[in-house]
């Protein structure tokens, strides 16, 4: 029997994340997990309970459809986020009710084998677990962060919820897909009787197959969230150390945060630099993001020696590698498991401004060797992180669930 004949009656549902199919890292991971399952003949559906896009967004998809073989639905019956407080809450309630009714419909008329859940809010997780008991389907946590270690989740109520999530709720899932060794060990310690499989960063390397435009000005590139403003400041200071030659720029692609926060960052850059040595990008389309990755002389992702950074594995590392350009990072967490300094990446031993600046200077001084490092990194990425390589493992894990 073919894989399709074996699994075409198996249906995997994704819950907890809205924004599909155009979101950033979290949505991209769900998309690639779903495409991995498609390679093994599974049917997949992504259920978004609320609209998240602004009315003026260039959205060209409906509330229900199919994207690259993946079925999806917005149970709020709108992909847009209403402006008014009352309207937003009405949509949330509508989405919550619609989500349950759609799951009930699938269970009655179709089939749900496993729900892969990407959610850290205890209230919603418990709701999904109640649904799973009522409708009789298994649940797996998409385990990519240790909630209680995240600095931006600092309100008292959120800290209480995160503690409950990390120490109790996580045990209630039927299995887990940790993204890192640290999260794998954590889950195995707290839920030793439950199955778990490490699923690292995933990437579709075919989307980065475009040629490079070598006529562009040379630049280093960092892509990250405004939640990591500390890291953005760190990179700016490292760039200052090697920026005497203004022909090499620094491009910063930032996401998340408020528009005012991005504005303040731009004002700060204007104050620190007389010329446009640093360019700031935000809310750019994915094809432009890929183009910026492909044409950078090096891509920056310094990880801090914290519980948060040693537990996570940033999605953009896979995309950085897919560009074929050298990655500059630090020897923290999953980096130790995959990369060798000077061979597949430029890895600083310490999270230190001078150490990162030294790696940036190496790229400027050794362009040929740096290109070779980038090419080796891409080959590593193809072997370890291309979504197609994980299909059999993921199928065997879900069959165990």
Topology:
Blueprint: H1 3-7, E1 11-15, H2 25-39, E2 43-48, E3 64-67, E4 70-74, H3 85-109, E5 114-117, H4 122-135, E6 138-143, H5 156-167, E7 175-178, H6 181-190, E8 219-225, H7 229-242, E9 249-255, H8 259-272, E10 278-282, H9 286-295, E11 298-301, H10 307-311, H11 316-322, E12 327-330, H12 335-338, E13 346-348, H13 353-365, H14 367-384, H15 391-400
Parallel strand pairs: 1-2, 1-5, 2-4, 5-6, 6-7, 8-9, 8-11, 9-10, 11-12, 12-13
Antiparallel strand pairs: 3-4
CATH homologous superfamily of the largest domain? Glycogen Phosphorylase B
Shape: globular
How many separate domains?
A: 2
Low-confidence stretches: 1-6
Distance between the termini: 22 Å
Write up what this structure looks like.
The structure is a single chain. This protein is of the alpha/beta class and 401 residues long. The chain has two domains: 3-202 and 387-400, Glycogen Phosphorylase B (Rossmann fold, 3-Layer(aba) Sandwich), CATH 3.40.50.2000; 205-384, Rossmann fold, CATH 3.40.50. It is 44% helix and 16% strand. The chain is built from 15 helices and 13 strands. It has helices at residues 3-7, 25-39, 85-109, 122-135, 156-167, 181-190, 229-242, 259-272, 286-295, 307-311, 316-322, 335-338, 353-365, 367-384, 391-400, and strands at 11-15, 43-48, 64-67, 70-74, 114-117, 138-143, 175-178, 219-225, 249-255, 278-282, 298-301, 327-330, 346-348. The strands form two sheets. The chain has a seven-stranded mixed beta sheet with strand order 3-4-2-1-5-6-7, sandwiched between helices. It has a six-stranded parallel beta sheet with strand order 10-9-8-11-12-13, sandwiched between helices. Strand 8 (219-225), helix 7 (229-242) and strand 9 (249-255) form a beta-alpha-beta unit. Helix 7 (229-242) packs across helix 13. The longest helix has 25 residues, at 85-109. It starts with a helix and ends with a helix. 40% of the residues are buried.
């Amino acid at each position: 029997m073919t894989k399709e004949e074996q699994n075409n009656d198996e249906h995997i549902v994704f819950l907890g994340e809205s924004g599909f199919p155009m979101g950033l890292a979290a949505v991209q991971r769900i998309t690639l997990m779903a495409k991995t399952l498609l390679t093994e003949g599974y049917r997949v559906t992504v259920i978004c309970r609320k609209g998240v896009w602004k009315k003026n967004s260039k959205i060209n998809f409906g509330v229900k459809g199919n994207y690259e073989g993946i079925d999806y639905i917005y149970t709020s019956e709108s992909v847009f986020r209403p402006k008014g407080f009352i309207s937003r809450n009405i949509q949330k309630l509508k989405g919550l009710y619609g989500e349950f009714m759609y799951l009930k419909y699938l269970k009655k008329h179709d089939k749900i084998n496993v729900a892969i859940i990407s959610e850290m809010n205890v209230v919603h997780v418990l709701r999904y677990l109640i649904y799973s008991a009522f409708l009789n389907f298994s649940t797996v946590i998409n385990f990519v962060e240790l909630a209680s270690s995240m600095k931006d989740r600092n309100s008292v109520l959120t800290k209480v919820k995160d503690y409950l999530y990390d120490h109790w709720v996580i045990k209630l899932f039927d299995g887990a897909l940790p993204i890192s060794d640290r999260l794998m060990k954590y889950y195995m310690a707290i839920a030793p009787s439950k199955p778990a499989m490490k699923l690292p960063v995933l990437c579709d390397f075919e989307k980065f197959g475009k040629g490079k435009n070598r006529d562009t000005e040379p630049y280093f590139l960092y892509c990250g969230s405004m939640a990591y403003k500390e890291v953005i400041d760190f990179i700016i200071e490292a760039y200052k150390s090697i920026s005497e030659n203004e022909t090499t720029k620094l491009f910063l692609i930032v996401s998340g945060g408020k528009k005012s926060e991005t504005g303040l960052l731009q004002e700060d850059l204007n104050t620190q630099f007389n010329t446009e040595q640093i360019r700031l990008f935000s809310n750019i389309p994915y094809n432009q993001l890929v183009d910026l990755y492909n044409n950078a002389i090096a891509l920056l992702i310094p990880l801090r020696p914290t519980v948060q950074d040693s537990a996570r594995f940033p999605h953009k590392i896979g995309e950085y590698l897919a560009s074929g350009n050298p990655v500059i990072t630090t020897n923290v967490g999953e980096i130790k498991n995959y990369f060798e300094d000077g061979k597949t990446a430029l890895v600083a031993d310490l999270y230190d401004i001078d150490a990162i600046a030294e790696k940036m200077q190496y790229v400027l001084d050794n362009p040929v060797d740096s290109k070779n490092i980038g090419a080796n990194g891409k080959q590593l990425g193809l072997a370890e992180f291309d979504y197609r390589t994980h299909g059999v493992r993921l199928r065997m894990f879900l069959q165990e669930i």
